[in-house]
């Protein structure tokens, strides 16, 4: 049974590598946009959930928005 089930995860990994990392074939700006979107999503969710409340305001702002603004 293990020999029969082994090709499915391997083919899934191969298909993911081929289709996910070829986003530049769709549009040349899509890889940078896809890379930047998760950083902004996490920064905004941390802002609304109150992450880093113990840090001073300047440090909290730097921690939340430093990474997305540097992209």
Head-to-tail CA distance between termini: 46 Å
Which series of helices and strands comes N to C?
Answer: HHHH
**Assembly state here?**
single chain
Portion in helices? over 70%
Mean pLDDT: 81
Number of helices: 4
Could you describe the largest sheet, including whether it forms a barrel? none
Shape summary: elongated
Structural class based on helices, strands and sheet pairing: mainly alpha
Radius of gyration over all CA atoms, rounded: 19 Å
Beta fraction: under 5%
Low-confidence stretches: none
**Overall strand count:** 0
What do these coordinates show?
The chain is mainly alpha-helical and 71 residues long. It is 73% helix and 0% strand. The chain contains four helices and no strands. The protein has helices at 2-5, 7-20, 30-49, 57-70. Helix 3 packs antiparallel against helix 4 (57-70). The N and C termini lie far apart (46 Å). The model has no long low-confidence stretch (mean pLDDT 81).
């Amino acid at each position: 049974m293990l020999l029969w089930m082994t090709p499915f995860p391997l083919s899934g990994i191969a298909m993911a590598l081929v289709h996910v990392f070829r986003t530049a074939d769709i549009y040349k700006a899509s890889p940078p946009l896809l890379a930047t979107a998760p950083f902004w999503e996490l920064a905004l969710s941390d802002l609304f959930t109150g992450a880093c409340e113990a840090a001073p305001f300047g440090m909290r702002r730097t921690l939340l928005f430093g990474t997305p603004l540097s992209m």
